[in-house]
Amino acid sequence: MKHPATALAPARPEALGEGARLTVDLTAVAHNVRLLRRRTEAGLMAVVKADGFGHGAVDVARTATAAGAGWLGVTSVHEAVALRDAGLRVPVLSWLNPVDADFDTAVRRSVDLAVPSRDHLDAITRADGLARVHLHLDTGMARDGTEPGAWVDLCRQAYAAERDGRIRVVGVMGHLACAEMPGHPANAAGRRLFEWGVATARGAGLRPAVRHLAASAATLTEPRSHFDLVRVGAALVGIDPTGTTALRTALRLAAPIVAVRRVPAGTPVGYGHAWRAASTSTLGLVPIGYGDGLPRNAWDRAEVQVRGRRRRLAGRISMDQFVVDLGDDPVRPGETVTVFGPGDAGEPTLSDWAGWADTIAHELVTGLGPRLRREVLAVAKGSLT
Ligand SMILES: *Cc1c(COP(=O)(O)O)cnc(C)c1O
């Protein structure tokens, strides 16, 4: 089989130069925060765990607080400390820690701590200084949070520790399992359980001022779940688990075509020869792979955009690269392939990719690899009012 020589001209300077580029548009985050604030009378906690859903925890935190988020939320103490180190001063809550986490540091750096068990309460009570805590009730996930059967005891113990001046119970939190399905009976059940949990805490003598249950989905669809504070992560970066709201996507992933070649019908491409050219076709090599977070199992459904047209992948996604079937387009090396973006110009979106990969956009954004060059589009000063 005769394969014509591959063109290897260098990428044009106006294209992407060094390779794949991930653009993080913080103006989209600012827009989403303003939209979310209009949707609720509660305070807004910007959840920036997992490096701000892959968008950069400090960048998202700064953008969200400048746009009106009064709280920040993360899982671990060390994520919270990184926000403090970056100079962020609003209340920060860390809710998922082993019992031997560095609670001394958390207290010293003014990091609020969630309490999901008696063991955690005991450990936090022993920390140096007065810990600000949020009692975490499991409102129907059997995951994090205290089981309802142990809640009364936890509240009593927390009251004793508060009376002794060891902790201050600032809040009560829960989390809903099925909020992306508005009307699911687990949502009302979770809300009732949460209300019971708050009443029980008050009955034990506690005065939790900040009650918080809703994450993105419930914030967008169920005002009765908002209470005093909503904890929003996905929606900040434009992921709407409910499909109800026009949020702005903050990410664009693009790469230059590294090489093109013309191949005859029947040419097998990539590992396992999983794909063969149906007719004479031009193939483009793109330097992004599953090592950068592209879901490997999406290859036979996925599309990218080249010269304004959707194009299918040719063969499996490799660790560092994939091949795109360009048909008869006379595409040159250095031209841009858009893997995903906001969708404004017909390019695939993260939610398209999530569908092709049988997953959710959350998993894709948090899986983007450190090898991608990042370009951050900042919010212009004065545009946040
Ligand atoms: C991740 C997380 C959130 C934010 O969830 P989104 O659906 O991304 O808004 C809120 N609360 C808890 C406990 C979480 O783990």
Automatic annotation (TrEMBL):
EC number: 5.1.1.1
Molecular function terms, GO-annotated: alanine racemase activity; pyridoxal phosphate binding
Pathway(s) per entry: Amino-acid biosynthesis; D-alanine biosynthesis; D-alanine from L-alanine: step 1/1
Residue positions, PTM N6-(pyridoxal phosphate)lysine: 49
Catalytic activity: L-alanine = D-alanine
Residue stretches making up the Alanine racemase C-terminal domain: 250-377
GO biological process: D-alanine biosynthetic process; peptidoglycan biosynthetic process
Residues at the active site: 49, 271
Gene3D superfamilies with a match to the protein in the record: Alanine racemase, Lyase, Ornithine Decarboxylase, Chain A, domain 1
Keyword field: Isomerase, Pyridoxal phosphate
Pfam families documented for this protein: Ala_racemase_C, Ala_racemase_N
Cofactors named for this entry: pyridoxal 5'-phosphate
CDD domains for the chain: PLPDE_III_AR
Record keyword Isomerase present: yes
A GO cellular component entry from the record: cytosol
Residues where substrate binds: 143, 319
Record keyword Isomerase present: yes
HAMAP family in alphabetical order: Ala_racemase (MF_01201)
Family designation: Belongs to the alanine racemase family.
Known role: Catalyzes the interconversion of L-alanine and D-alanine. May also act on other amino acids.
Stated name of the protein: Alanine racemase
Native source species: Phytohabitans flavus
Gene: alr_1
